[in-house]
Amino acid sequence: MGEVTAVVFVIDDDPSMRAALEDLISSVGLQPRLFASPQEFLQGPRPDAPGCLVLDVRLPGMSGLAFQKELERVGIALPIIFITGHGDIPMSVRAMKAGAVEFLTKPFHDQEMLDAIHAAIERDKQGRRQALLVSELRERYVTLTERERQIMTLVVIGRANKQIAAELNLSEMTVKVHRGQAMRKMQAESLPELVRMADRLGVTNTTS
User: How far apart are CA 38 and CA 66, in angstroms?
Assistant: First the structure.
């Protein structure tokens, strides 16, 4: 209940294409935001809502592919659907390799565009869920003491309590206590869950 309406940003210098896409996007209950240029888009406010970007490949001033790189540089992670009036295969391959969701050649069918938009929004929702999860895990991780982090790292790379005790010059009971504290603070119900959490946080990258 009360889910935020997804936003579809459209950047195209052709007013008739913008108008057609505005009608199409509105017709399925999504919120269109229209821009004639990448600069206009970058200057405009972006609501905190799931969304995607429909981007013309050939734009005055900056190509869609160059803009795709620019978005990455400034940290805007919107899934992109490219549209083009030219069946430019090498360009579409480059766009897809750089992470575009879809590449549609004009004139495209409405349903093709809507399918691409729904797939892109779903991808963005998943990305946002992951980012939120990682941010919550980070908040939990910072509550761990230095010793608890050390033991958690050794636990998730597969060390047994006895090995950890020997490695850190602690008693096995002390290791068990710290391990239990780390599990509790991280809200992990099981060792596999703790391993998944550590993996998301990247704490197992410390090879010891």
Answer: 10
Sheet holding 51-56, edge to edge: 31-35, 7-11, 51-56, 80-84, 102-105
**Token couple for 20:** 């057609």
- Rounded mean pLDDT of the chain? 89
Q: Which two tokens stand for residue 169?
A: 């010059």
Which CATH number fits the domain 7-130, given the four candidates 3.30.9.10, 1.10.1040.20, 3.40.50.2000, 3.40.50.2300?
3.40.50.2300
Which of the 8 DSSP states describes residue 203?
A: G
* Tens of pLDDT, residues 123-164: 999 999 999 999 999 999 999 999 999 999 999 999 999 999
One DSSP character per residue, 41-102 reads: HHHS---SS-EEEEEESS-SSS-HHHHHHHHHHHT----EEEEESS--HHHHHHHHHTT-SE
Check whether domain 143-205 has CATH 1.10.10.10, yes or no:
yes
Strand, helix or coil for residue 31: strand
Stated pTM of the model: 0.74
CA of residue 170 relative to chain centroid, distance: 41
